[in-house]
Amino acid sequence: MAKDLMNLLDLTKEELREVLDLAHKYREDRTLDNTSLSGKTIGLIFLKNSTRTRVSFEAGVNQLGGYPMFMDQNSLQLGRGESFADTAKVLSRYLDGIVIRGHEHENIKAFADACTIPVINALTDTFHPCQLLADMQLIEATSGKLEGIKVAFMGDCASNMALSWIYAAHLTGMELTLGGPEGYLPPQEFLDSIGNPSNIRVTTDAKAAAAGVDYIYTDVWVSMGFEEEAKDRLASFAPYQVNMDLLSVAKTDVKVMHCLPAYRDKEVSAEVIDGPHSIIWDQAENRLHAQKAVMKLKF
Q1: Annotated active-site positions, please?
Q2: Which pTM value belongs to this model?
Q3: Dihedral angle computed from the Cα positions of residues 225, 184, 99 and 273, in that order, rounded to the nearest 10 degrees
């Protein structure tokens, strides 16, 4: 297993299987392996605010018997200009593992490369592998498999979530269709980098993306850092709202997922997020179990 988890391709298919199997066990029994991080201190560096990621990682480290040490930009010399590499070299002398959430993927990768201890990417502007592990765990739990499952990702198809979904489909054989407007589609060179697989499709037609799928997935339209683009984004993504009209073209038992935070009646209607098709709260819970599995295997 690679030292770090920067994106899903850092896992082989066999390692992904190991993570998901362990995550399912942790969901069944939160006391399992409750001493596996005993005596270890795990640094949680959050350069970007978070609710689910911070709480699920802190709780997960605690449930595995370790000590979670939270640090934000203001509590580190990173905020005064110390380099990522220098910070990484020092923290490696004190800690047993690091979870880091930041902005530019290249900076977080440089930080991980300079560390001598394992580093887990808890979100960058390019990838969010831990969210996808939790999502795959839930799809497997509700459908019994991943390969062949049809998923539509709606909205910003060039986002960190969409790119992570592309890697997830590439690894598992899920049938992924990305539905979004021109200007927000995945870069062709990114698709080319994994061989442009036939199980991943891109369309600007929202209903064509959602037709006959088992799962519809969406994400916030205006993520942190994109506030200045809010007006244009809200207008561009409006036709891709996940609402009952869009669900009407999917399978009758379609399930709706959202990585949260959600803005009701923007990317998803309140009727859908609170309705019988929503599995969003189970999805949020799985962050805890999937991340515990990664930490058990990495740290």
Answers
A1: 101, 128, 131, 219, 259, 287
A2: 0.97
A3: 90
Residue 157 marked ligand-binding? no
Q: Which amino acid is at 273?
A: I
Answer yes or no: is 73 a known binding residue: no
Helix (H, G, I), strand (E, B) or coil at 97: strand
CA distance 147 to 246: 24
Which residue has 């499952």 as its token pair?
Answer: 149
**Residue 50, pLDDT score:** 92
Average pLDDT, stretch 163-174? 98
C-alpha dihedral, 14 to 92 to 89 to 102, nearest 10°: 60
DSSP one-letter string for 110-161: HHHHH-SS-EEE---SS--HHHHHHHHHHHHHHHS-STT-EEEEES-TTSHH
* The total number of residues written for the chain in this structure: 299
Residue 69 has pLDDT above 90, yes or no: yes
pLDDT of 73: 87
| Residue 218 assigned ligand-binding role | no
What pLDDT score does 238 carry? 96
Q: 9 is written with which tokens?
A: 């391709």
- Non-local (6+) Cβ contacts of 58 within 8 A are 44, 68, 70
128 is in an annotated binding site: yes
Q: Is 259 annotated as a binding residue?
A: yes
Domains and their CATH numbers in the chain: 33-127 (3.40.50.1370), 130-282 (3.40.50.1370)
Average pLDDT, the chain: 96
Which pLDDT does position 110 carry in this prediction?
96
Residue 192 pLDDT level (bands cut at 50, 70, 90): very high
